[in-house]
Amino acid sequence: MSDASEQFPRVAFYDTKPYDRVFFDAEAKRLGLAIQYHEFRLNEANAASAKGAVAVCVFVNDPVNSACLKNLAELGIRFVALRCAGFNNIDLEAAKSHGIKVVRVPAYSPYSVAEHTLALLLVLNRKIHRAYNRVRELNFSLSGLVGFDLHGKTVGILGTGKIGKITAQIFRGFGCKVLANDLFPDPAWAEKHGVTYVPQADVFSQSDIVSLHLPLTKESFHLVNAETISQMKKGAYLINTSRGKLVDSAAVIDALKSQHLGGVALDVYEEEEGVFFEDHSATALQDDVLSRLLTFPNVLVTSHQAFLTEEALHAIAETTIDSIARYVRGEALASERTVV
Q1: CA 167 to CA 20: how far, in whole Å?
Q2: For 252, which DSSP code?
Q3: Tens digits of per-residue pLDDT, 271-296?
Q4: Do the beta carbons of residue 205 and residue 231 sit within 8 Å?
Q5: 68 and 122 part of one domain
Q6: Does 200 share its domain with 221?
């Protein structure tokens, strides 16, 4: 429980960590809300923990399914705030049927994710992680650390929302040729920044590096699969800082084993729930696919941390708490925040 007075409306927060509570506490105090923190994820079995709250706040991997929403509705809760942009973990039809409003954070710091995308690529390509470990053991050999110049390479950006656009612009700053594909292209932006929109198949076939910046939908599920990977250049790099289920992990493993893919950098993973954000260092990892991915020297995985900057955490807290406070006060919510 936060230090806020019990006279304030209480919000149940799930799947929280110390690093984000600092930002939420500051905003809640400013806007007159009390927060009850839960480290576990919200699900149908523990929904009763929200009893007495005016709203609940969940993160990207909380499975807010139909049964969970039914249990929340029976507690009188009619407001679910997502402190992330994606909302594929919530049954929207069930929320609508129970009269539960769902909001999200449509944008926080697109620079944080875009910059992490480049950081992953640079570390993987120039073998920084391997060099770092060598030097700490007083091994100053350069064997096996050869990378390539980004300058002059062709980069494919799938999805040109805010993050995709910023990522494309950063790549252009490196002197890369940038191809892009999006259901809703922005020709004016593309012309201004020297980006060329092409069909999706051309992004896969012509790019040295393919970077994913798409939402997860039925159409984008496993967009990167055996067929699309086969279209990619031999030795191409794949980067995903978007949604894990955009990528068929088994197909990626096959492509790594055959050396068709030159490198893979992932900040997300299709079965990350229950694995990412947690410390499993003292136990055996139960996910055999992820375990296999981690064995490849040309694979770099981070634990869904692309958003993790001070600026992004502050923006997430500010937007989330503001949405909840407006709901409590009966005020209108910004349309871009509202999912249902």
Answers
A1: 25
A2: H
A3: 998 899 889 999 999 999 999 999 99
A4: yes
A5: no
A6: yes
